[in-house]
Amino acid sequence: MDIGSLIFDDMDQIDFTGPFEVLSRLPGSSYRVYGVTGAPVRDIRGLTIVPDAAIADAPPLDVLHVPGGQGVDVLMENEEVLAWLRKQSGNVVLSVCTGALLLGAAGLLTGRRATTHWASVHLLPELGAEVVDQRVVVDGDWVFAAGVTAGIDAALTLAARLHGDEVAQGIQLHMQYAPEPPFDAGTPETAPAVVLEAARADMAAVTRRRLTTIRRIVSGHAHP
Amino acid sequence: MDIGSLIFDDMDQIDFTGPFEVLSRLPGSSYRVYGVTGAPVRDIRGLTIVPDAAIADAPPLDVLHVPGGQGVDVLMENEEVLAWLRKQSGNVVLSVCTGALLLGAAGLLTGRRATTHWASVHLLPELGAEVVDQRVVVDGDWVFAAGVTAGIDAALTLAARLHGDEVAQGIQLHMQYAPEPPFDAGTPETAPAVVLEAARADMAAVTRRRLTTIRRIVSGHAHP
């Protein structure tokens, strides 16, 4: 089984590294990491990761993994990337965080039940998707994770679907994944109001720009 | 504040990338990643990460982060790395997974309350540490995480200690860290017996070799 992740500048690295930790341990599979080119990629906080190859050199993938982060905004209008996503999304797809927006920009979310990062969830219907208010959403052969760390839960869900519960549980045990967050602040519903307000203010400009981009893309689809 | 992670070949990448996701978002701080040399590092599953610099070029760190993984076994007898850890561990230390064994090999765990990956926890007393059966153990200015993904919980705990609860909660909300593992199999106590047995068998050789290494190191300390 060929598993491949798309990585790109200004992604949120754990959208990628969380699922990598899980899926790279699936038996009998090859996991490779693809950049838009073969050059190293810098995540939004400055972590440098080296892809195994450029997307142009990827074989047909059995599992396509698309992480998110601010870098999706540029890629949503990169025709080479969008064409590659269309070509590679015929089997199993794992969408993490705002990776869903990128898949949507490729026209792949029409009619899908999906989710994404809490701050971008209102953008999904613009791309034809139906939002499901769950941390992990399974829609046929597609698995969608909500924001960032939800990718770990989604990847374990996918591992179980592909190889059975015991394989997924073995990976979970290796990862000692029995989380105990020190606070209950991981969702807009549970975060203290002052923390939520600051986060929303922080993201307002990005989210507004993203809506403009999405509307431009969608109107482009309608009137080519 | 200067934050630095040690990265090395055959580490378990999420021991590093989990805390990076949290600590790289602390306000007013610089986070850099150090390799034994400046060369790219390959994690145990093949992910290639580029350090910002070699350990020899690191400034005095305010926060030292040490991940784990099978690569610690070689580093436990690397005098350059051990000397660097001794020099850099005077302020705040975040130990994740079997990073604790490396710190122990440097002679830094004597009398400390600590934890590590569940499969190596019996090795800590050999290095002079007292094992505490918690996912995150705080001992003065040191924070210890149990295995792998416990680094995320420990890093959030550390973020709150350094910058207050609201900063840590803001980072948690950004990461949408409200975990929902699909199984309750993340510890030896909760994993199905067959899964635990397979994991133990898988790790038996590594763990035995590790014990031999540690006894050699400790006897070297005693009779220099």
Report the total helices of chain A.
7
Write down the domain tally of chain A: 1
Rounded radius of gyration of chain A (Å):
17 Å
Q: Look at the helices and sheets of chain A and give the structural class.
A: alpha/beta
Specify the CATH homologous superfamily of chain A. Answer: Class I glutamine amidotransferase (GATase) domain
Residue stretches of chain A low in confidence (pLDDT < 50, at least 5 long) are none
InterPro entries (chains A, B): Class_I_gatase-like (IPR029062), DJ-1/PfpI (IPR002818), INH-QAR (IPR052158)
Protein name (chains A, B): Cyclohexyl-isocyanide hydratase
Pfam family, one (chains A, B): DJ-1_PfpI
Organism (chains A, B): Kutzneria buriramensis
Characterise this structure:
The structure is a homodimer of 224-residue chains. Chain A has 224 residues and is α/β, with parallel strands linked by helices. Chain A has one domain: Class I glutamine amidotransferase (GATase) domain (Rossmann fold), CATH 3.40.50.880. Chain A contains 7 helices and 11 strands. Chain A has helices at residues 13-23, 72-75, 79-88, 99-105, 150-163, 165-174, 193-222; strands spanning 2-7, 30-35, 41-42, 48-50, 53-54, 63-66, 92-96, 113-114, 130-131, 136-139, 142-145. In chain A, the strands form 3 sheets. Chain A has a 7-stranded mixed β-sheet, sandwiched between helices. In chain A, a hairpin with a 5-residue loop joins strand 3 and strand 4 (48-50). The model of chain A has no long low-confidence stretch (mean pLDDT 96). The interface between A and B is large, with 64 and 64 residues. Strand 4 (48-50) of chain A pairs antiparallel with strand 4 of chain B, so a sheet runs across the interface.
